[in-house]
Amino acid sequence: MSAPNLDIINEINRLKKQKNAVILVHNYQRPEVQDIADFIGDSLELSQKAVKTEAEVIVFCGVHFMAETAHIVNPGKTVLLPDNESGCPMANMITPEALIARKKELPGAIVVCYVNSSAAVKAETDICCTSANAVRVVQSLPADKEILFVPDQYLGQWVNEKTGRQMYLWPGFCPTHMRILGDDILREKKNHPGAIALVHPECRPDAKAAADEVMSTGGMIRFVHENKAQEFIIGTEIGIIYRLKKENPGKTFIPATDKAVCPNMKKITLEKVLRSLQENRYIITVPEDIRIGALNSVNRMLAIG
Ligand code: 13P
Ligand code: SF4
Fold first, then answer.
1. Global pTM?
2. pLDDT at 1
3. CB–CB of 270/5 below 8 Å?
């Protein structure tokens, strides 16, 4: 490790103790940011961790909606997002106004909301889900009810297939996962016979159909730990490969495509984490009326796990 990085890390650790801070890191973050995590995980695991933490300050190395969720469940704590520009394009594909209009067209439908959405959108929904629990969440809903699933059409399509429920899908998508094609999976399977292809549910239907397993990033981490195979084709944002390699040094990981990079997830650097702790920035808060509405939807999800 370079000397400047070591200085930054020492200072981050000193400030972390001084401020009673915890650093939560998503699986897609840069390697050097993953290495300073107190806890690293997928969206569900990070929200569960945010609920339980006893720290006074949460430094969230992820994207804006994740930091918002940490504040929704922890209004008494300071939640910091080291780069205020790290948003999620999918979350921006739905607004509360557009959702309210759609709900009027589907008055009986239960609204299931992927956490990749703003707090204001969550506040207009009945229950949240992540890619790890979306099937469980939908299965928990009364069988005679229609479902409006927002904002990811591809996660929604997959849940629809798994549950057979009557679902209306919002036309949102993840531009990063869209870059992973079914042909990429098929090509790498041909190049690596014997490799198991793991794909995220945000991917297109053709990529999921070509995969062996479809799961969240946290699911991939567990699957690789538990599976005896030596080679895995990874169909999600490629930042996860650093963690997979680090935790499974004997195994080989092949990205389905090098194009699957989320630029927003890469905006956070060690320097920005340090500044975040030094200057208490950027503080993420949600107005109380919106927070309460969003909390109901998030809590219903957390009760399901
Ligand atoms: P998970 O880590 O929950 O699988 O989510 C992936 C993602 O794209 C988060 O933005
Ligand atoms: Fe959003 Fe996709 Fe990036 Fe996840 S990977 S933060 S869904 S743009």
1. 0.96
2. 62
3. yes
